[in-house]
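Input/output pair, single chain:
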Amino acid sequence: MPFGQFVRSGAPTNLPVVNGRMLVAVDGREYRNAGMTLRELGNLMLALGARDAINLDGGGSTTLVYADPDSAGRLRIANHPSDKNGERTVGDALAIVHGCDRSRHLRKAVRARGYSVRTEKAYVAWIVKYVRFCGGRHPRDCGPDEVQAFATSLVSERRVAPATQHQAVSAVLFLYRSVLHDPVPWAEGIVWAKRTRRLPTVLSRAEVARVVSALDGQEQLMVRLLYGAGLRLLELLRLRVKDVDFDNGSLLIRCGKGAKDRVTVLPESVRAPLEAHLAVVRRLHERDVERGGGYVDLPHALGAKLLGAPRDWPWQWVFPARRQYRDRGTGQVRRHHLHESVLQRAVTLAARQSGVAKRVTCHGFRHSFATHLLADGYDIRTIQELLGHSDVSTTMIYTHVLNKGGRGVRSPADRLDW
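Output:
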């Protein structure tokens, strides 16, 4: 991570080298209060796999930060003992921690197991919260009492959902087991909040039509695909041109939830507008190529195996972002896919304008897709495959909102002459 993100104005330009490491003197008062003390920051970095935090002798109230010159990501924290035992707060503390990716044993352990990037970010964020909950102590100095107190506080004080509590405690246990190599035999005794199964919000066909009619252009096409193919939001955004099969009327979903591939239906009603949209995207791509860009990120190591693929039309995103960026590693000018917040905001606004009195989300169209297929008489196994569920019991939850609600029971109130 660049030293410029730590050093404020007045820092020395000629950085001394001590024992082969670069040494930077930073005035502690130049940092804004971020709610984390220097001691907490040092312990936090230890928890994430950094080397020992050390106190160095020095003068005044100077804070010392040093790192290997060839790998600024491997940071250690040092402060003068007279500086109130490290009670001075340090600004951008969390930014420092999150910026030091490559040397973090935690991130390496997560990636080695093939977990998604979102899982990695969530685990790191929860471990940051856990260390701060423990007062900055190293996790090795904590145990079942602290983990249980952390789990309880999430539910009782922060009032998070049981699923959120499970994710947080799972992250902490992952730290102990996979990073600190502690078998945690006490994990069996942790008291968890009881998980409740909530029914999804499903829109009627008329409500879907009202929301879709309140959209236009690219956003309307995207919502029609969400509903018509039963896609998750990120599955839609990560569609590449080669994944759209017009001849067979299908969409190939790569690396969906659980890193699984599947095939789902391409709605016939979307074919023409999607072809027109891809024609516009192709012209944009050709213009990018003429200007020296036109690259996209490829999964795994395909960029090294297929040298021309990052610029080829089949690998381009179906819904590219409006802006380009320059990749730091390769120097290529690329386009990422559209950010999920673009469609999320559009759906929220459309739901408000259409007057639908339900909580409308992008994922709600997937729920509606499954429920309406059940209402049309399609068997549960077919719907399970289209949705990509591993267990049919997950798909069975949609049976609650068939046209004959309440299991087809007629209320006795309807037999009375009110």
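The beta strands are 17-18, 21-27, 62-68, 71-79, 244-245, 250-253, 262-265, 320-326, 333-337. Confidence is low (pLDDT under 50) at residues 1-36, 48-103.
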